[in-house]
Design a protein that fits this description.
Length: 201
């Protein structure tokens, strides 16, 4: 079985598990994260519906944009673009606070490795922001996004606990990225349609 065939059921399972997790946790996601969560759930529902072609293309595009905004917003936050530390709605507010937060996820790591991990995560999230918005090889972008978010999920669960995971709704973001990766690219669908039309003619 090709890996693509596993992505859709895996995404649906992770989204369902993420919903159960969010309901069980008293902590609610922040507004921006909540919008991305709604997109992930909507993509899951649309992918289950029959005759979902056009709606699925739209849901896929929306999910990609929402994930891009989430990654881009996180990068902007750690660079102080959204306000300084302590401002409402801001998680870090500057680079130093972000590095300190990264250190909480890697308590065993020496300072140079923590800084390198923080820089690496920032570079990958910045690339994903542009990549997801570009629409180029969106399936691959979804796989990379899901992998990065899964690393965050494991690190957070083993260090800072479930409350922070729930605040960022990480399981639902992983599921949304998997569902994004599971969908057929639009250009492939268009080619198939043209081929059918030519054969019919």
């Amino acid at each position: 079985m090709r890996i693509e065939k596993l992505l859709r059921p895996a995404g649906l399972i992770v989204v369902a598990a993420g919903l159960v997790f969010q309901v069980a946790e008293p902590v609610r996601p922040r507004t921006i994260t909540l919008v991305v969560v709604v997109g992930a759930v909507a993509l899951g529902l649309v992918s289950l519906a029959p005759g979902r072609g056009r709606q699925l293309v739209i849901a896929r595009w929306v999910m990609a944009v929402l994930l891009a905004l989430d990654f881009g917003g996180a990068v902007a936050d750690r660079l102080g673009v959204l306000g300084g530390p302590g401002v409402v709605g801001v998680t870090w507010g500057d680079w130093d606070h972000f590095v300190a937060s990264t250190g909480q996820l890697l308590p065993w790591a020496p300072r140079p490795l923590v800084v390198a991990a923080a820089l690496g995560a920032t570079v990958v999230e910045s690339v994903l922001t542009v990549w997801l918005l570009s629409g180029w090889r969106r399936r691959t972008a979804g796989v990379v996004a899901a992998g990065l978010l899964a690393v965050f999920l494991v690190s957070m669960l083993s260090t800072v606990g479930t409350a922070r995971v729930a605040m960022n709704a990480v399981p639902l973001l992983v599921g949304g990225a998997l569902l994004l990766a599971a969908q057929q690219p639009l250009h492939r669908t268009s080619r198939s349609s043209r081929s059918i039309s030519l054969n019919a003619g």
